[in-house]
Structure formats: structure tokens, C-alpha cells
Amino acid sequence: MKTREVVEYLNSRFLPVYQESYDNAGFLVGDLEREVTGVLVALDVTESVVDEAIETGANLIVSHHPLIFGGMKRITTGDEAGRLVTRLIENGIGAYAAHTNLDNLDWGVNGVLCRQLGLERCKVLRPVSGALRKLVTYVPNDKADEVREALFAAGAGGIGAYDCCSYNSVGTGTFRAGEGCNPYCGSIGELHREGETRIEVIYESRIEGRLIGKLLKAHPYEEPAYDCIPLANKLMNVGAGMVGELGEEMPMYDFLEMVKQVTGLKVLRCSELCLNKVKRVAVCGGSGSFLMGDAKSCGADVYLTGDLKYHDFQAAGGDIVLVDIGHYESERFAKELICSVISEKFSKFACRISEHDRGYIYYI
Asked: Model-level pTM?
């Protein structure tokens, strides 16, 4: 199995197109044509993780945090990132990262944290904007079903949990074929009127190239007319953070004790326990202070995230309980998620979770 095949599959599942603009997800180091001997999954690429990859014969490391994050102007052994990149290349080990794109998928980092906490009826806290478009095309009535099915097969027509969604209206199209044309209907040089179906479907902009290709292949006209229209609608299953509800309301203190057990923490940092009960819970793995307003607006009783500062807790304002569960602890379940995605697809090599991947913060 070539590294290229694994990377293409990971891209199809983790969708790097949904990473944040500052991020650097995807295949970062290595040779795409190298045969994969094993995959090691970690939250961070560190010296000990690289050592483990060498010892276990894994030549591809899939991490959550990118080894190369900001711009690297030089690669030397004088700094940690350069030293790690050098070691990876010397030992023929590739590096792939699924970072904010995995954060932003509803089944990703935040989705798995919600499942660990037993939350139900979960949805994205801040859905992305600008990711949806609408395709409008005009097809002879007798070919409308065929073209519509081709658009669905290409990935268009999904709205939430519904698929094969379209709007269709019947009208009349006119055209006149010029010299050298090979019209599907009508005659060269004569104005033709054709009964047509106007088909409208919503799609994610990331599939536009494939979608247009399928349209042109399925459409009977030499020069089919179509429009690609940007939409203000939000893509509800992609975005930052998640919010869900407990099956039953819990006393606040009992809930926080449960959070400690799930995350493996012995201590929590939190704002004033201004509420006695918990029902609605918002989460964001990693650094999530930017979503505090969203957590309040959605009516969450508690907001769990990492990397909160002193004045972030002050901003709770008695409306919500803010809980810092640590950056590593809030994302630790991503490792099992990544490993399961790889293992369910590939059986020709071993995929294992690093035993040396640990957070950088220790509690004494």
C-alpha cells in the first residue's frame, strides 16, 4: 500500500478544505510513493513519538497537531521542528496532520468528546458560512431524471440529514445552432423551442469541479447552460464547537466529577458555580475561548474547553459555568478516532496509537 493511497483516503475523510486559514493540515513530510509499513497515531509529533515509530517499524505518523505549523524558513537540527523533520526524512517516515479540519467536522474532535460525555441531540455550535452553493441547469424534459441522478451521485442535493433534494420547474428554452454544431435537438440555423426542466440543487463548494464534470458528461446538450450561485446558508454539520444535552439533568458538582473521570483529570479550573443543575453542554476541543459568546447564546449551562485565561473566567458573568479541561485532555479522544478511521479501511499494515504521546502540562 503506497503512502499516496492512504493520504488520499485520509483527505477524503478528514477534508482538509475545512481547515482554518491559519492551519497547515494534510501531508507535511515524506514520500507519497513509499510503501506503508505501519501507521502510528499521536496528538503531537515529538522526539519520543518518532523514536516509537522507528522502534515499531511505522513509517507514517498521523497526528492531530501539525508538526509544521507556521512558515519554516530553514530546516536545521538547531530547533525542535527542524530536528524532527530531519529525523523523519532520514528514517523514511512520513507525517500527516488532521487538525482544525477534524475539529470542524461534526463527528470529529468535538463530536467524539460529546459522545464520551453522553450528550444527545448534538449540533455544531458555530456552523461555517460560505461553503454552500446552488447549481441551476436547464435540461430537456426527457433527460431530466438522468441528469438529476448524475448530480446526486456527484454529491449534490444534500440538506442536513436529507439527500436527493432538488427543485424542478418546467418551461421553454430557445436556441439556434450555428454552423459546425451538432445539436441534440433542432436544426442548424433555425430557432428552436424545447420543453426543458430547470433543476436546482445545493452542494458544497469543495465538490464543484467534480459536480460540473458530471453535469457536462450527463447533459445531452453540446453547450449546457448552468449557474453556480453562492449561498448565505450555513453548512450545519461543519464548524467550530458542539452543543448537546444530557439525557437527564444533573447536579452541577456531579457533572463536573463525571467530566474529571472521562478526561482523566484530577483537577478542573472553572468559573463560579452559578448554576446548580446541568442539562445543556457546549464543548470545544483545544483552545476555545473564542466560542464563549456562542456557548452563552445557545443557552448552554456549561462550556467545556481548554486554554482559558483569567479574564475569560471573569467573562462568564454568572450566566454560564466555564470549565477549562485542558488542551490535551479535551482532544485526547481524537487519537482513537483517527486510528479507527484508518483501521476500518486498511488491513495491510498495523495502525497503533502511540504509547509515548502525552500532554505537556503536569498537575502536581
From this structure: 0.92
